[in-house]
Every structure is written in structure tokens, then in C-alpha cells.
Amino acid sequence: MTFSIVVAGVLIVWELARPEMDDHQNRINELLYSPAGATEDQSTYVRVPHCISVVDGPLGATGPDAITDHSFGNIKAIADSLAGAQAAAGVDPLGPDPNYPGLFGVTRDGDPSADALRQPVDFYSPDTFNYTIFDVSADGRILTVSSFGINSTAQNSFLGYDPVNNPVRQLLSFNVDAFPEPAFTACPGNITLGTDPGQCAALSSFVVAASGRPTPTVVCTLNGVAINSPFDFAKGVNVVNCAASNTLGSATCTFTMTVNDTEAPVASASRKDSRNRKGGEHEDDDDGDVVWTLQASDNCDGSALQIYVKDSAEGKCGGTFVAGPYARGAKVTLSRNKVHASVKRGSDGLAAKITTKGNPVLVVTDSSGNTSCTVVQIPKDE
Predict the structure, then answer these.
(1) Contact between 188 and 207 (Cβ < 8 Å)
(2) Domains, the chain
(3) Taking residues 57-63, what's their average pLDDT?
(4) Residue 380 CB partners (closer than 8 Å, separation 6+)
(5) What is the pLDDT of residue 13?
(6) N or C: fewer beta carbons within 10 Å in the chain?
(7) Angstrom distance (rounded) from CA 53 to CA 72
(8) pLDDT band at 362, cuts 50/70/90?
(9) CB within 8 Å of 277: residues ≥ 6 apart
(10) pTM exceeding 0.85
């Protein structure tokens, strides 16, 4: 008798051998057919995708049964010999392809490595009385096939069930996943974040995961270079491409990691406080004004910055009065005048002579638009 049913995406053809056929065995194969219609010539057979054939030898069959040694070693030798002869004859050998789509969790009585090293004996049990249970997961995705049996007996000598000397045992089992192709189960959305302090990049973790059988390999790349989480993403828009692949195919996942420079530049002005040869307190110009060196730095723009000098009397970041721009390292004189602010061209290495009503304010803006306003404290008598 033959029955067929589609479960978990697999067509199962279950064949119950008739007692008079003396077909006492449990055998798993992929279903075959002959495209040319030459059913008598098995060498013309090809596999039918997603179809499995299960043969059960029934209880109560007569013999004679030639196999009396049911040890795993003997059964393996028989299975290997049969599969070898089939392969030599151009016939699809015993058992499904070890890489059958979605196949996992293979077990075989006596073979602890059945799933890691799938071989003919893991899908074959000659001269046993068998029955098979087909179980489908609640979500309809996983098919579990479990075959049970007892050792068969000689012709016309079948005795009552002996749970001690010949108990029912699970001979083999396997699972089939109806969706074995790679599929991403976790793919980040587009992410925007700011740079880390003092860095023109942001260290960020990301989670990607994919399902599939065999378990897919997931590789993420940025500009063609493989990356792992966490990763230092440079300022700008970073397009990350991830691929999950196994023997059945591949899937892709793409997301962007946009890093914005949110850190303002740092500006400062330094003066030489050590006494010079003339006994003065500072480095002075010819008019006796203190000479200041302007400095600026930025986490992304480095020293490629322009420095403006404004007047704190007009606001925290100054107002309409402006002197500059000046490059990093420029030397200027800074002084205060209660009446008016002014800027004059410098000489002898000075970029300018700057006078403000309040304290001078160094204003620097980086290429991302971040601005810093740094007040330089100037005594009123300078």
C-alpha cells in the first residue's frame, strides 16, 4: 500500500510493504522518476525535488529473514555494499542526499555521528518490523520523521512481543525544514549617530542574523571590505551590505550608518609669560602690546580651521565687529578699549593688532557647521 501527503513543504510517499512481499525493512530515499518513461531502467531515474519516499516493513510478515545479526556494524556493511552497487550501476544510492534541502537532526540507533556524517546506514534498517511517525510543528514549518521497529524473526516463527529481548526502539529519525534557504531574521534599520568625543568616527554595534539549513554564513561589508560588530564608522553615510549564504542560495540585507560630526572645534590663545631680555612680563610688540598666538583644533578638520576674533561686549559670540579670518598659529596683539573696537594691519610677523571693548572672543566653525566661542581674558590695562 502506498500513501502520499504534503507536509511542511515536502511530499511524503509512504509505502507499506505487503506481507507476501517479505519486504522487512525501513528505507528512506528521495522519490525518483524517469523523465523518459523508462520505468524499467532505473539508471534513467532522476530525483523529484522536495519529495521523500519512506518504506516500512509491517508487523506480522512472514520470512524467511536472512539477516540475524542486527548489530550496527553489520547493518552498516550491508548498507554501504548496497549503496556502492547502486552507484556503480548508475542508480541513485540508498538514502537522501546528505545535503538534502532543510535536512537536519539526523539520528540512527548505534550511530552517534549520524547528523554530522550522513551515510546510507542512517536511512536504512533491513529485516526489522517497522512503523513510522510523521510529526509537523505547530507553525507547519518542520517535519519530523521517526521510525521505530523490532528485529524481525525467521519464517513462521514470529512470537509474541518480547519487550525485554526484542523491544521496540527508535531506529532512525530526521527533520526537514520547509524553509531552508537563507533569510535574514535581524537586519538593522538606518541609524544616525554622532561622532565619539575627540574622534571623527563613531564606534557602534549592529546586529544581523539569518536562518537557514545549513546554517548560513553571514558576511557584512563596507566599501567592499568585511567588517564585524562593533565597528568604527567614519563621518558621513556608511552603506553596509550583508549577505547570508548556504548551499541553497543567499539573501541580502542593507542598512546605512550615518555619522554626523557633532563636536565643536576648540580654540585658544597663548601668550609668552616668561621674562624676555628687556625684563618684561610678556612677548611684546614695538608698541608694548602683548603678542598672542591663536590656536584651533577639531576632531574632524584637524588644524584646517579659520579663526575669527570678535568682541564679547556685543554678545557671547560677539556681534558685528569681526577681525580675521586667521590661520592656526597666527600671531596678533589683543588689547581692550572702553570706547571702540578696532583692527589694524600688523607688521614684523604680526597678522593684526586687535582692540575690543570687552574681552576678545575666538570664533571657529568647522566644516560640519559646529561653532565654538572662546573668550580670552584680557586685563583692561593691556
Answers:
(1) yes
(2) 2-177 (no CATH), 183-260 (2.60.40.10), 266-375 (no CATH)
(3) 55
(4) 336, 338
(5) 52
(6) N
(7) 23
(8) very high
(9) none
(10) no
